[in-house]
Design goal:
alpha/beta; globular
Length: about 250
C-alpha cells in the first residue's frame, strides 16, 4: 500500500469557507456534510511519507481529524492567508522543511517575524524554509515534486505534481506548456470557485475546459465557494470522470 499514492482532502473550500459567515443561502444552510467546506488543504501520503499542501487557518481541526499529526514536509502554493494561516499550528513539527517560491519565503519572514528574530521568544515554532524555482523538480522527504506555475490573476503561484497526481489551486490562467506537461495525468485536482466568472479564480465552466484539454484519468474539483451550488445537485451535471471534492475525501492513485 505504501507504493500507492493517497490523497486526503483536508479542506475543499475557498477563503471564506462554507458556510460563509452571515450567509443564508441554501448551500450555507445545507445539512449535507459535503457542503461544509473548510479552507483548502490536502495531505499526500506516498512511500511512507506524509506531505502537506498548504496550511490554512483550519489546519488544527483538519489534522486532528486524520488521527496522525506527523508531517514530513509542507508545500506552499502562495502567501494568501487561507493557505498559510495555520503555520503556527505546526509547532509539533518544528524545523521540518517548508517549500515555497522566494517571494512567499520573503513574505513569511514579514508575517511571522517573531519566528525569525536573532533571539526568538521561547516556544515559538521554528521553520526550515526552502526556496524552490517555478520549473525545477525538487526533493521533499525523498519524494520528487514538480512545480506547476500558474497565475492567480496577477500573482504567480505554484501547483504541484507528485507522481501521477497534479494539484492546482487558486488558478485563473495556466499556460499552454503547463497543460501539455499535465496531459493525461491520472489524477488532476483543480480549483472551481463557482458558476459565475471571477477575477482571480477559474469558474466551473473554465475548470471543465482545462480538464478537457488535459484529459486526466480522473478530475476532482477543489477550492469551492457556496457559489458552486449544493454538492448533490451540481454533481448530477458534471461530465463523466469529474467530481466535486468534499472535506475528508480520500483518493487513491
Amino acid at each position: 500500500m505504501k507504493d500507492r499514492l493517497k490523497i486526503t482532502i483536508l479542506g475543499s473550500g475557498t477563503s471564506t469557507g462554507v458556510p460563509q459567515i452571515g450567509c443564508k443561502c441554501k448551500v450555507c444552510r445545507s445539512n449535507d456534510p459535503r457542503d461544509k467546506r473548510l479552507r483548502q488543504s490536502a495531505l499526500v501520503e506516498w512511500r511512507g511519507k506524509r506531505i502537506l499542501i498548504d496550511c490554512g487557518p483550519d489546519f488544527r481541526q483538519q489534522i486532528l481529524r486524520t488521527g496522525r499529526a506527523h508531517i514530513d514536509g509542507l508545500l506552499l502554493t502562495h502567501i494568501h492567508y487561507d493557505h498559510i494561516g495555520g503555520l503556527e499550528e505546526l509547532r509539533g513539527n518544528s524545523n521540518f522543511p517548508i517549500y515555497a517560491r522566494g517571494d512567499v519565503i520573503k513574505a513569511l519572514h514579514k508575517r511571522l517575524a517573531y519566528c525569525f528574530t536573532e533571539h526568538p521568544y521561547p516556544g515559538v515554532p521554528h521553520y526550515n524554509l526552502v526556496e524552490i524555482n517555478d520549473n525545477d523538480p525538487f526533493d521533499c522527504a525523498g519524494i520528487e515534486v514538480q512545480p506547476i506555475p500558474v497565475m492567480h490573476y496577477r500573482l504567480p503561484i505554484l501547483g504541484f505534481r507528485i507522481g501521477d497526481m497534479a494539484y492546482i489551486t487558486d488558478c485563473k490562467t495556466i499556460a499552454r506548456e503547463q497543460i501539455e506537461r499535465l496531459h493525461r495525468v491520472k489524477l488532476l485536482m483543480i480549483n472551481a470557485l463557482r458558476f459565475e466568472e471571477h477575477l482571480s479564480h477559474i469558474s466551473l465552466s473554465q475548470a471543465l475546459e482545462i480538464i478537457k484539454q488535459i484529459k486526466p484519468g480522473r478530475a476532482v474539483l477543489i477550492h469551492m465557494s457556496h457559489g458552486i451550488g449544493l454538492h448533490a445537485e451540481t454533481s448530477k451535471h458534471l461530465p463523466k470522470g469529474v467530481e466535486l471534492a468534499y472535506d475528508g475525501m480520500k483518493i487513491i492513485v
